[in-house]
Amino acid sequence: MANYYQQDFEQQYKSLNQNQSANPQTLLNQLNPTAVLLQSVYISDNHAPLGEKDTLISADNGSDYDAVHQRYHPMMRNFQQTFGYYDVFLPMLKRAILSTASLRS
Predict the structure, then answer these.
(1) 3-class secondary structure per residue, 50-103
(2) How buried is residue 43: exposed, middle or buried, by Cβ count under 10 Å (0-12/13-18/19+)?
(3) Cα diameter, the chain
């Protein structure tokens, strides 16, 4: 996961933000263990290139989260694409994002 943040994510971030750093280590340090696990499974271990991570419907790991993701992610992705949104966010009460349609970190 650190490799993803420090290489792929950082490179993309810099290209979109006038070469400014996202400070990937700071971002990683702010994640709780659940966020690290889910981002590892659905983002950093996802073999799709950046911009196409949302094509992953299931991690096929048998988890409860994966069953929910498999059921609802296609609807979120369809909503995003139908209306041309950059992304669709599912916020949680404690100021965190549970999921995004585009599976961005």
Answers:
(1) CCCHHHCCCCCCCCHHHHHHHHHHHHHHHHHHHHCCCCCEEECCCCCEEEECCC
(2) buried
(3) 41
pTM metric for this prediction: 0.80
**What does the pLDDT look like over 7-56, one tens digit per residue?**
999 999 999 999 999 999 999 999 999 999 999 999 999 999 988 999 99
Q: How far is Cα 59 from Cα 67, in angstroms, rounded to an integer?
A: 9
Q: Euclidean distance between the first and final Cα of the chain, in Å?
A: 11
CA atoms of 99 and 84, how far apart (whole Å):
18
Does residue 100 contact residue 80 with C-beta atoms inside 8 Å? Answer: no
∠ at Cα 50 (74, 43), nearest 5°? 65
Look up tokens 């490799």; give the residue: 3
Q: What's the one-letter identity of residue 79?
A: F
Check if the beta carbon of residue 60 is closer than 8 Å to that of residue 66: yes
